[in-house]
Amino acid sequence: MSTPQVFQPSLPLCRPIAVRWREALLAPVEAWQRWRERRQREHRYDAVLDLNPRTLRDIGAPEWVVSHAQSRREVESHRVDEFHLGVRELPSRW
pTM for the full model? Predict the structure, then answer.
């Protein structure tokens, strides 16, 4: 005589309602946290690129980071130069 065994699927066919509600409510929060982490990483990367290329070489940064920081500084200096060239100086009253 064999004892009947209850069928147990390897994957649950339906998740409990509490689990489904929790996942639905936490999905936007988790997406926002992922976005915030990504933005923090980008800010840290930008902070590194704002360092002087000589400082980057001193701390042993890869050459591509030094090059990127240097080109970024050059672009910024060109922007400042173009801004100063485009601004007309008004005659002083004094």
Answer: 0.53
